[in-house]
Amino acid sequence: MITTNPFEDRDGDKLREECGIFGVLGARDAAAMTALGLHALQHRGQEAVGITSFDGQEFFSRRGIGHVAQNFSSGQAIAELPGMMAAGHVRYSTTGGSGLRNVQPLFADLAAGGFAIAHNGNISNAMFLKRDLVQKGAIFQSTSDTEVIIHLVATSRYPTLLDRFVDALRLVEGAYSLICMTPEGMIACRDPLGIRPLVMGKLGDAVVFASESVALDVVGADMVREVEPGELVQVALDGSIQTHRPFGDTPQRPCIFEHVYFSRPDSILGGRSVYEVRKAIGTQLALENPADADLVIPVPDSGVPAALGYAQQSGIPFELGIIRSHYVGRTFIQPSDGARNADVKRKHNANRALVAGKRIVLIDDSIVRGTTSLKIVQMMREAGAREVHFRVASPPTEHSCFYGVDTPERSKLLAARMDIAAMAEFIQADSLAFVSIDGLYRAVGEVQRNSTCPQYCDACFTGDYPTRLTDLGDRAPGCSPVKLKAKPAKVA
Length: 492
Ligand code: SF4
Hints:
The protein is α+β, with helices and mostly antiparallel strands. The protein is 27% helix and 24% strand. The strands form 6 sheets. Strands 4-3-5-2-11-10-12 form a 7-stranded antiparallel beta sheet. Strands 6-7-8-9-13-14 form a 6-stranded antiparallel beta sheet. Strand 15 and strand 16 form a beta hairpin. Helix 9 (274-288) packs across helix 10 (304-314) and helix 9 (274-288) packs antiparallel against helix 16 (437-443). Its EC number is 2.4.2.14.
């Protein structure tokens, strides 16, 4: 795992978005534009990157382990990818593990011609489908769930590539935003629930697709709209566009955690500024869970907008009580005794002069395992904070995600193991509170969560998975762990 992510992988104690995808058709420098777009999506995956291009005759691919800049900043790398159509992928391994053979876009020569595919999401019946395909003679080149789609397209009996593709997707469960390339052009689509995001833009005559609108901004493209849940957008080589809705109208369930943490704050998601939504979550948090304190301090960087919202609503001053190093590299060998929490301090250090003697409210976007929250609370206390109140800009993360987000197994999630009082004790906070699920829905513009037909996927908070989970026996994964209760006495 690469640990140089400036968008914070705090000791593996964050949920991680697994992939970002980008595609362009009709640009003379399609591969260079794709590299730039992927660079803007680097926060969605730092383990590996790949780009495939098409020059009207042939497909070209280049894939590498590491960041976009490590693999695609040289003129030579881009020169290996000629053509006016290109698609790329940044990845942190979802299913299938790491290794170059799993780096996307995946490519296959089918009877109808070349087929390249870049996937953000996770197919929750991939193992089931793969078993069947292998029994019928399919030979898999990777261990990625995405390759299942290629084999389903290859073995479909429909005559046209588009029909084969739709036929394949009908068999697939789970979350997928896809950008595919064929000799006829590009196809971009989202699963019927629209769990993972995908937007469409224009740059002159070129059509651009990306996981987030920030990638359109960076390449200079104008946002046209989101690809709708269940929609396939087909762009021919001459630039003409056709849209298809093979799944009919289904209720949407986009991932609400994109608003909380995954997407960049300068992206527009569901027509809303991610930054503004995060501030609104902070406002809700302050309304629901006030604290008597001197300062509101964000856990950088993802806690910053919610902390601003909390501070504005509560009237408590916002201050930067934790300073993040911008030069965090790979994990160092820990010096022995006396360097307790050296790794977390290397990334974040207390602004001692500010926090000493103060009662502080710390704002973070989520608590996953809780180990980093504990270290940060300890850091604040060591810097002299008199009281540390922890407020979280999402409901307790009690369940694993099976839709393309790297989550620890359920038994490792602090909120699945403990009630809130016990969690507060574990992280050694004077108080701990989370925004409610309805508060989160209000922040994204809803009145409240519709419990019979939720407007978003919120399964990591509620356990209400919007699709079958065939590979897990179609049950909510992991038996419910018995929750520990806090001991009556508070840890000082
Ligand atoms: S389970 Fe959570 S992280 Fe996964 S798609 Fe649903 S809301 Fe997003």
